[in-house]
Design goal:
Blueprint lengths: L4 H26 L5 H6 L4 H27 L24
Helix pairs in contact: 1-3
Length: 96
Amino acid sequence: MALPALVQFMIRNAAIGASLGVAVGLGLMFGDAWGLATLANQTESPLVAWIMLPWGFAVTFGGVQVGIAIMTAEDDSSGGGKRQRIPLASGAPRRV
């Protein structure tokens, strides 16, 4: 069973953003920007620090990329729903 097009769209954009986030996180670590790698290597468990920083960037960049992709997506103009008017009940309150 194939995934719906919207799910594929979101997974593809999340993967793009996450891979960019991992690249940025590892670039900061390998470049020792602001002494991050030195600080991480001086902790009790440097592996955790080396995993958590790129992971945080991956989650953030992935979410941002999905949000940008959804907000900039064009309308498929397939017509949507029936767009029928629903009458209000006679005693229902109405905004003025």
